[in-house]
Task: structure prediction
Amino acid sequence: MSNLKDKANEFESKFVSSSLEKRLSSSAKQELADELKTNPEYFKRLENDEDFQLFIRSNFKRKEVSPALVESIKTKIGF
Result:
């Protein structure tokens, strides 16, 4: 049981975040597809994460940053 849990955690840390942010390479996407075919629990985790991110984006607004603050930060870091 622990081995399955370790595998699920490895899958989550390796794929879920980057997959949702559309940053997977083509080989990683293929590996993800293969994992999803072999273990339905992985698919369920991925689906739950996508639902949660959609909920967050739909119900919470990011605070806007003023252009003056952006310029101030750029000046301080020498950009």
